[in-house]
Amino acid sequence: MRGADVHGSGTEGEVGSTPTARGALPVPPAGALPAPPGGVDREFLALERELAVFLRRARAQSGEMAREVHPELEPAAYGLFVRLDDAGPQRATELAGYFGVGKATMSRQLRALEDLGLVARDPDPADGRASLVRLTEEGRDRFRSVRDARRERYVRKLADWDRAEVAELARLLNHFNVRSEG
Fold this sequence. Notes:
Oligomer: single chain
Distance between the termini: 41 Å
Low-confidence stretches: 1-24
Radius of gyration: 20 Å
Strand order of the largest sheet: 1-2
Shape: globular
Helix content: 40-55%
Mean pLDDT: 82
Structural class: mainly alpha
Largest sheet: 2 strands, antiparallel
Order of helices and strands: HHHHEEHH
């Protein structure tokens, strides 16, 4: 597909170049250009730019999705739902470590979710002094409804992508996330 905008970026690129957003500079294939003066690689500058846009959009979408689960939720709550649904009940300290936030911040976020009846704490069978946080049935139902609607939006947005490209994007994001942990 020479010149086709298969990623919905709004511009057409040439074979071997990365699709770009309107007004963004194209990213040449790796190794095509020498590093600019000062030793900063163009690929890493492009990565930084694209991650900044991606993260800004992701934060806005997380806020929207959290409010769809419950109008009083803050944006960070959506990530907690994702983690608890994927990994099951966890200690608050494990959640704080996973998200890279302090225990006080996590405690405040969990307390707000508890007050809304979306999460509950149960005694940890391995240590009766600790508790495990889990989604309540209502929390799980509300979250999954919003998550399923979001996945449908992804399917529509990436409908013209080859499934292998979607899988590769997921693999690379996972690789990046694993490397970013602790």
